[in-house]
Design goal:
disordered N terminus, Rossmann fold, about 30% helix, 7 helices, eight-stranded mixed beta sheet, about 240 residues, globular
Length: about 240
C-alpha cells in the first residue's frame, strides 16, 4: 500500500495515454524502445527513463518528439529487466528499491547502446537526455563518458553525485523552482561548483513554479498554468541538442 503520509514527489504528474510511433528492439542483453525520423540522419539521442521505467508512455512521447526533430531516439531499459517503480508501491521502501538501481552504474549498458547506434544505425554524433533518475545518470555520463557529445539533465537528483562539476561535454540542467526532491540550495551549490571547475559550456535553468517532473510528467491540456513552462523546457532541450549535435 502506498504511504499516504509521505507520497513520492515523483507521483505528482500525469500518465500520458500514448502508444508510441517506434518499436521495441533487443540490443544484446537490453530491451529498448527505438524510433527513427523519416529522413536518414547520423545524429542520435539516448533517452534515460525515470524510476517508472522504459515503458512509461510519457518517456516514449519525448523520444518520439526527438524523432520529429530529426534525431534517432532510443530509450533502453536501464533497469535491465528489474521491475520499475509503481505509484502503488510503499514510498517507505523506496531507498531499498533504489540500492539495486544505481544511476551511476549504467556504463556497461551505455557502451552496448552506443555500439548499436554506431554500428547498426550509422550514428556519428550521439547525445543523451534523462529525467529524474535518468537526469542523475546524465550527470554521471557527462563526467565519465568520452563518446557522447552533449547531455540534457532534467531534474536529475544532484545529491547522488558529489563530483558533479568537471564536465567532459556541454550540459544543460533543467530544474523546477518548487521541486520537493531537489532543493534550490542544491542547485545553487551545483552552479557554484560548475563556475569554479567546469571547462565546457553549460547552463543551469530554473523554471518558475514548477514541480518535479514537469517537462515529461505533466499534460499541458490539464495543467494550463504550467503549459508555457512545459513547452519552454521541451524547446530548450531540443535547442541545446541542435546546438551541440
Amino acid at each position: 500500500m502506498a504511504n499516504e503520509s509521505r507520497p513520492c514527489p515523483c507521483d505528482i504528474g500525469d500518465r500520458f495515454d500514448y502508444g508510441g510511433r517506434g518499436q521495441e528492439v533487443q540490443v544484446e542483453h537490453i530491451k529498448a524502445y527505438f524510433c527513427k525520423p523519416s529522413a536518414s540522419t547520423d545524429k542520435a539521442v539516448i533517452v534515460i527513463h525515470d524510476i517508472f521505467g522504459w515503458q512509461l508512455p510519457n518517456t516514449r512521447y519525448i523520444a518520439d518528439m526527438l524523432t520529429t526533430n530529426g534525431y534517432l531516439a532510443i530509450c533502453p531499459d536501464f533497469f535491465v529487466g528489474q521491475e520499475a517503480w509503481k505509484p502503488s508501491n510503499d514510498w517507505g521502501t523506496f531507498n531499498e528499491w533504489l540500492k539495486t538501481r544505481n544511476a551511476g552504474k549504467i556504463d556497461k549498458e551505455v557502451d552496448v547502446v552506443l555500439k548499436y547506434l554506431r554500428d547498426q544505425c550509422g550514428a556519428k554524433k550521439i547525445g543523451v537526455i534523462g529525467f529524474c533518475w535518468g537526469g542523475a545518470a546524465v550527470q554521471h555520463l557527462m563526467l565519465k563518458n568520452p563518446h557522447l557529445k552533449t547531455g540534457v539533465s532534467l531534474y536529475g537528483v544532484i545529491r547522488h553525485f558529489d563530483d558533479n562539476s568537471n564536465l567532459l561535454h556541454p550540459t544543460f540542467f533543467i530544474f523546477g523552482e518548487k521541486d520537493d526532491i531537489i532543493p534550490l540550495e542544491q542547485v545553487t551549490l551545483l552552479e557554484q561548483k560548475l563556475k569554479q571547475n567546469c571547462k565546457v559550456d553549460y547552463e543551469v535553468k530554473i523554471y518558475p513554479g514548477q514541480t518535479h517532473g514537469f517537462v515529461h510528467r505533466k499534460r499541458e491540456d490539464i495543467n494550463p498554468q504550467d503549459k508555457p513552462y512545459i513547452e519552454e523546457g521541451r524547446k530548450d532541450m531540443i535547442n541545446w541538442l541542435n546546438k551541440y549535435l
